[in-house]
């Protein structure tokens, strides 16, 4: 409810550095002296810079024109605690090669990334694209193709549904433009948009007017362009560009028959691998990987946020895989893969479905291979393979825990962004055989009906902030309590084991399941020693499908088979070298699972402790 004004230039040509704050509740400008730190350590005077606000409410200022010429520094204004007026200015160091100094550029937020486009150095007008990753503070240039817009400055740039950047107008310092261009963030290809609808609603449309120095914003499926100048005359009108009927560049550029051929080759190549020899893995070519990502994203877009999975032959359900590709292969090779496609595998029923509960990436060495193989199966068998989102399918998480580095090492930054764009469209929960509720984390105090999950709109780029997406955050982050006497929801921010979301007790689990006519909750999200664990009198099952997690915990991995009559088996893999994979011998009928009380299994051993550590109610919790 506050606006920060910083810098600018007077009519006399003086550059400014005085910040001001406009408060909606106050209905005016707040006195500078009342805002602690507002005028202390301000950035140098400048104009024609950009300012974007992060989810943390920190303002990010980049570039601009100064008395000594263009600059390319990054400055932050970080507000103090909620309820207080004030903040602190600081200069942010950023890794990587930065953009050249510039002004008159534009910037917009996509998730936690700031995209910079165009501008001028005074001598040269630019049309390059840069990403400022604010999770790890790093610059990366985006290499684009397609119908590229001319170099320009003083244009506008907006983010449409986390998928496209749309720019309008601007000038090359000689000519003022009146064109729209769209950058597909999936393919990094520019396209020209020719459909500009009208001026203000109710008025006769007159088409676009060349302009610069204007502002744009998105509302629904339209881009609104306001004010600006053609260099001699100021505009006060509003233009409305409808993009609802503009062909999705991803859909238009993906030939599904071609991608199915790529997916088939990937599956056959990967399913031939045996053992755990990293030298046996040859990366899928970048171009093929990109096509697979966007084809999978397109399929996710067609699915609902809440999946319905029914099968006359049963369903195989997997927990966290965390980049442990060879464990995924072992599960497929020992217990069957979708349609038995990809090699001589144990037969599964023709209608057998496969449901994966998230956390495909991070920690393990082969996250790209895990996701690429599952996406390939999803493309080949979209009605047989289902994937929901885990808390690591989030750029704010996987930029810190291995996936970002793996993508840069194998391909480049853009592949990492493309994967995360596809993750932002993933469904978030599933109902299996009309009786089993499945999600990555757990239930939420905000969750009362299944319709609330079905109503979640995607894409959602970052879900770790409970203030922005409380229900989705809990579905991906919450856990059953390790306290057997716990009741209700226990908020664990900011000092809990994960730093966000809730632990929940048996009472609220049973209340939620009964209210929604569900028999049990199946989830992932926690390492459990035997690969599976029962809790809440058998009405909650935790699955973990990565054996000897991170090479440290000596745990088993498990996959759950739900038969059409709701009988449940657990298929267990021991860590490599500890004997053949096999059924644990624990075949529970559904009735026994829901009637027999069970305790949570003993904790897996901590680092450096002997196998079979102290028995207790807790499990190893992953670090956030």
First and last CA, distance: 30 Å
Mean pLDDT across every amino acid position:
84
Side-by-side strand order of the widest sheet: 22-26-27-31-33-32
Count of alpha and pi helical runs = 12
Structural class: alpha+beta
Quick one: overall form?
Answer: globular
Largest sheet, in brief, is: 6 strands, mixed
The level of helicity is 10-25%
This entry's quaternary arrangement is single chain
Strand content: 25-35%
Which runs of at least 5 residues are low in confidence (pLDDT < 50)?
A: 195-205, 245-252, 580-624
Q: Rg to the nearest angstrom? A: 27 Å
> What's the total count of β strands?
36
Report on the architecture of this protein:
With 624 residues, this protein is α+β, with helices and mostly antiparallel strands. It is built from twelve helices and 36 strands. The strands form nine sheets. The chain has a six-stranded mixed beta sheet. The protein has a six-stranded mixed beta sheet with strand order 25-24-23-34-35-36. A hairpin with a 4-residue loop joins β4 and β5 (28-29). α2 (256-271) crosses α5 (367-380) and α3 packs across α5 (367-380).
């Amino acid at each position: 409810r506050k606006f920060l004004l910083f810098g600018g230039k007077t009519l006399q040509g003086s550059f400014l550095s005085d910040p001001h704050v406009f408060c909606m509740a106050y209905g005016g400008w707040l006195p500078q002296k009342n805002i602690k730190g507002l005028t202390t350590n301000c950035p140098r005077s400048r104009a024609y810079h950009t300012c974007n606000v992060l989810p943390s409410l920190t303002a990010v200022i980049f570039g601009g024109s100064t008395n000594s010429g263009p600059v390319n520094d990054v400055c932050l204004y970080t507000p103090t605690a909620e309820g207080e007026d004030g903040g602190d200015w600081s200069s942010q160091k950023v890794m990587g090669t930065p953009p050249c100094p510039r002004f008159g550029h534009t910037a917009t937020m996509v998730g936690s990334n700031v995209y910079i486009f165009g501008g001028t150095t005074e001598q040269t007008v630019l049309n390059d694209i840069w990403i400022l990753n604010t999770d790890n503070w790093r610059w990366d240039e985006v290499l684009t193709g397609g119908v590229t817009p001319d170099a320009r400055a003083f244009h506008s740039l907006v983010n449409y549904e986390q998928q496209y950047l749309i720019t309008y107008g601007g000038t090359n310092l000689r000519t003022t433009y009146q064109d729209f261009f769209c950058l597909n963030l999936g393919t990094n290809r520019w396209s020209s948009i020719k459909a500009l609808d009208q001026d203000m609603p109710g008025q006769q449309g007159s088409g676009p007017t060349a302009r610069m120095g204007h502002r744009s914003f998105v509302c629904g499926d339209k881009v609104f362009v306001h004010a600006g100048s053609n260099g001699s005359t100021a505009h006060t009108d509003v233009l409305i560009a409808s993009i609802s009927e503009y062909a999705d560049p991803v859909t238009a550029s993906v030939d599904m028959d071609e991608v199915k051929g790529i997916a088939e080759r990937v599956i056959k190549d990967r399913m031939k691998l045996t053992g755990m020899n990293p030298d046996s893995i040859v990366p899928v070519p970048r171009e093929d990987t990109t096509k697979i990502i966007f084809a999978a994203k397109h399929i996710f877009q067609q699915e609902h946020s809440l999946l319905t999975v029914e099968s006359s032959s049963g369903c195989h359900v997997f927990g966290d895989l965390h980049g442990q590709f060879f464990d995924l292969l072992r599960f497929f090779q020992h217990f069957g893969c979708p349609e038995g496609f990809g090699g001589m595998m144990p037969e599964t029923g023709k209608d057998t479905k496969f449901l994966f509960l998230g956390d495909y990436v991070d920690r393990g060495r082969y996250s790209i291979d895990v996701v690429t193989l599952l996406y390939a199966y999803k493309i080949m068998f979209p009605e047989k393979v289902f994937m929901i989102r885990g808390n690591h399918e989030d750029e704010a998480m996987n930029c810190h825990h291995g996936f970002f580095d793996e993508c840069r090492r194998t391909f480049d930054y853009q592949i990492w962004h493309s994967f995360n764009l596809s993750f932002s469209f993933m469904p978030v929960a599933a109902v299996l055989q009309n009786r089993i509720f499945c999600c990555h984390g757990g239930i939420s105090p905000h969750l009362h009906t299944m319709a609330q999950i079905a109503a979640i709109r995607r894409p959602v780029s970052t879900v770790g902030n409970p203030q922005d997406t409380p229900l989705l955050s809990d579905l991906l982050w919450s856990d059953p309590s390790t306290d057997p006497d716990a009741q209700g929801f226990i908020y664990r921010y900011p000092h809990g084991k994960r730093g966000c979301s809730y632990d929940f007790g048996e009472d609220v689990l049973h209340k939620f399941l009964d209210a929604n006519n569900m028999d049990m909750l199946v989830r992932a999200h926690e390492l459990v020693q035997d690969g599976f664990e029962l809790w809440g009198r058998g009405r909650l099952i935790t699955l973990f499908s990565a054996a000897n997690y991170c090479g440290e915990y000596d745990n088993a991995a498990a996959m759950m088979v739900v038969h059409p009559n709701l009988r449940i088996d657990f298929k267990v893999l021991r860590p490599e070298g500890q004997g053949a994979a096999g059924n644990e011998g624990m075949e529970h009928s559904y009735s026994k699972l829901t009637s027999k009380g069970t305790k949570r299994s003993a904790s897996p051993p901590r680092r450096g402790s002997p196998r079979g550590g102290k028995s207790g109610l807790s499990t190893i919790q992953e670090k956030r």
